[in-house]
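Need ML-like domain-containing protein's 3D structure for a figure. Predict it.
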Amino acid sequence: MPVRRRLSRGILGVLYAAQFIQALQILESTALVPCSDDSVINTNLFKMALTPGNNSVMIEFDGEITFSGMVMLDVDVLAYGYSFLTMRIDLCDYDLSGFCPMISQNLTVPSAVLTLSDDIISGIPGIAYTFPDLDAVVRVNMISNSTNTSVTCVEASVVNSSTVYQAAVGWTLAVITGLGLFASIILSVLGYLSISTQISFRTALLLSFMQSQAMVGLTAMEFKPMIQNWTQDFQWTMSIVHTDFLDTITTWFQRSTGGTPSTLRSEAGTISIGLLKRSDEVLVGRSMSASASGAEVLLRGIIRMGYRAGLESTNIFMTGHLVFHFIAIVMLLALIALKFGLSAFLKKTQGKRSGYSLAPLADWQQFMRGGLGRIAYLGYPQICVFGMWEIYQQDSAAEILLAITLWLATTVILGHATFRVLQHARATKGLNETLACSLHFDSRCMAQWGYLYAHYRAHAFYFIIPLLLYTFLKGITIAFAQQNPLAQAIVLLILEAGFLIGTAIVRPYVDKKANAFAIAAAAINLANAIFCLIFTNIFDQPDLMTGIVALLFFFLNAIFTLVLVIFLLIGLFYACRLKDPTADSWRSYHNRISLQSMRRLLRRESRQTLELVPLTEGTTSTKSHRQQRPNSPSS
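Structure prediction for ML-like domain-containing protein:
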């Protein structure tokens, strides 16, 4: 009873707090950027917060104004490119020093609170305060009273307190992915090779799709807030996480190796930082601070992602580098624990049966080598992006050396494994006439290199080559084209289209269901590439269309991500309901062997049998005939 009472109180407390969270309605902006070619207003710092509860808007401004005279403000409020509120404001109606009349000067407004009329507040729809990652823009045209012409144009991106970026989402997906990965390894050790490979495929497909979404967030296109925050949910798949401990280590390492740390995060409270790209956007350089670009910094691509994750631009590579090695160490320790702990656990729970259950993968040395290769395979997209980007970024000489070394090491590991698989298949094909026997029935080959080809049909194992090439080209495109979003989008579109066509034609995976999901994932990646091309504004589309495309991007990727998660959870559910493997379950790889290969093998055996029968009959009849004619010349 006390437990129930505490639980009830806890639930009531959460609901009570949720009322205050839901009641908090606010619209904010932290960057004021020009939308005209003049430089009448130069911004160092801008903050704005509108709270409809008390009809007030708080403004903080620090910058330079180069115009003098009486002005009016034509304010246009747009949501997803659609203008829903237009008003004209006379600055003389508000007690703002330096704005009535406007004086050419360096102006600092520490904090000014303006009271808005009920008509203005009522013109803002209630959904604007609750819809996640509101894509709203307040565009202000300054009109001279004397000439009735536009003096300048500025705009501010407005966001609310609701967002699709939730740390809990990333942690949940990470736990599910980790469970799928380790479940596939444990099941393969226990002899459930068929279900193990299915779960491994589902886990790899989910992880690769999340990595693809994270890589979209690393591109240099102009993204709406919803896309930025949605792709931020998956940056953990690229080993980008923020902790103060890692920040301290990476900053110390860079300074000790001759680099100059960036100061964007530390100066965020004193400068105006915009995260949306415009035509006049500046790509922040290697050690550029706010003062190097005039106290107004606009970020895009990898640096924008790092800033949103709480990282300085010069710490991005080293953070990914350290997290990757941490994950690799954890996986290796888990494999070692599996080696020494699983056998003892099975002996306690299953008795004598446990010794047989571990027989298929008794060669733990090969299994550990396969574990190292699996780590390199899963982390290769991240290494291709950040390793190549560090060569261009040049944070320090030591970090460049680390980037080159890590990329070469993983490339050599995967290249050598691919070569050995091809060599093994070619060497044994003449003996078996079926690659299923040579690749999928060889426990040593499966333990060491199975992570490369276990998901594929027997005669489509070579598909790992275009997959690795696709990953490498995609990574270097994102890394080296940060200054040219249009070229980046075009190359990504070509790569995604080619990969989709190849997957649809070859259909390399083990069954129809796997091929259907893989083709669907490739199709959505192609759609994302098309969306990226639209976001470069090459078609000069209206803002409303860009907003609609952003919503399509979010819903399309969110729905398919949910489908893949459910797909994996269903596999884990069936894995939990498995009974003990039969005596030959680890030899049964039926979903790996193509029907054509089996038919060829059966035809060959049948043909050999038919060829032996006449020869035996002929020999027997000859001997009996000779026995019946003892007086023949041959006798």
